[in-house]
Amino acid sequence: MNRFTWPEKPSLKAFQIAKPGIPYIIVACVSTLFLAGIHFHTLALIAFFITLFVCYFFRDPDRVVEEGEGFLSSPADGKVIFADVVDENPYVEGKCFKISIFMNVFNVHVNRVPFDGTIKAIHYHPGKFFNASLDKASEHNERNALVIETESGVTFATVQIAGLVARRIICGVNEGDKVVQGRRYGMICFGSRLDLYLPTDFDCRVAIGEKVQAGTTVMGVLQ
User: Fold this and answer.
1) What pLDDT, on a 0 to 100 scale, did the predictor assign at position 163?
2) If you ran DSSP here, which 8-state letter would residue 180 be given?
3) What's this model's pTM, rounded to 2 decimal places?
4) Residue ranges of the alpha helices (H) in 58-179?
5) 39-47 CB contacts, 8 Å cutoff, 24+ apart
6) Which residue among 34, 68, 111, 170 is buried most deeply as judged by most CB within 10 Å?
7) DSSP 7-25
8) pLDDT at 7
9) Is the distance from CB of 4 to CB of 66 less than 8 angstroms?
10) How far is the C-alpha of 115 from the C-alpha of 180, rounded, in Å?
11) C-alpha to C-alpha distance for 99 and 138, rounded to whole angstroms
């Protein structure tokens, strides 16, 4: 029987909003009220639906983590678009097993820690804003990488990558922080991608095209 735990205390709110979304929601609400107040009813109606979508985009549901030795959780909601060994990468020396998750604008965009460990380094790279589903996005788009070392000495990286629409990467942790699997650590606003760089002996349990959920979906097992 599968066992699950809460990495963070569940909220009592029926619909939880990520804090970075509050300014966007306020602007959308004020715009809607202003248009309604000057009797631009059609524009006010359009603005109302935009406000609903912004609230939906910044939703931040609580998630459980499945317990299991070496289980590595998904850091993001979305669809797996790559899962294979790559010869090199900028974050972890040598060959790695790379998994890429594409997040469209309808996915939850809050990112979660894949595995317990200590943040050894944070690498931010300014860049372009290609469609996040393209392979070149990993190398050319704006991105922020966390290099994490587990208690057993295994090193891996999780990389937030801005997409075609995304213009802001949010990261709420620092070098030296101890992080806990399944806990929130940041988000990317409006469509994006997240890459994982793992040891080559990683036992991958997801396939290309599979939909995953941050925190809840087991991506595989760290050996």
Assistant:
1) 73
2) -
3) 0.90
4) 137-140
5) none
6) 111
7) SSPPPS-SS-B-GGGHHHH
8) 93
9) yes
10) 7
11) 11
Which residue type is seen at 5? T
**Helix (H) or strand (E) run with residue 26 in it:** helix 22-37
Torsion region of 215: left, alpha or beta (phi above 0 gives left; psi -120 to 50 gives alpha): left
Q: What is the mean pLDDT of each run of 10 residues along the chain (223 residues)?
A: 87 86 94 96 96 94 94 97 94 94 93 97 83 66 93 96 76 96 91 91 96 97 91
Nearest to 1 by CA among 84, 68, 54, 101: 68
Residue 167 has a pLDDT of 62
Helix axes 22-37, 41-57, angle to 10 degrees: 170
Residues in Cβ contact with 217 at an 8 Å cutoff, skipping those fewer than 6 apart: 73, 74, 206
Total residue count of the chain as it appears in this document: 223
Q: Taking the domains of the chain in order of start, what are their residue ranges?
A: 19-57, 70-221
Catalogue the active-site residues: 192
Which CB contacts under 8 angstroms, 24+ apart, belong to 36-44? none
Fold entry, domain 70-221: Glucose Permease (Domain IIA) (2.70.70)
Q: How far apart are CA 142 and CA 188, in angstroms?
A: 11
Rounded CA separation 74/115 (Å): 9
pLDDT per position as a tens digit, 102-130: 999 899 999 999 999 999 999 998 877 66
Measured distance CA(94)–CA(36) in Å, rounded: 58
Strand partners, 223: none
Q: What is the distance in angstroms between the CA of the first residue and the CA of the last residue of the chain? A: 22
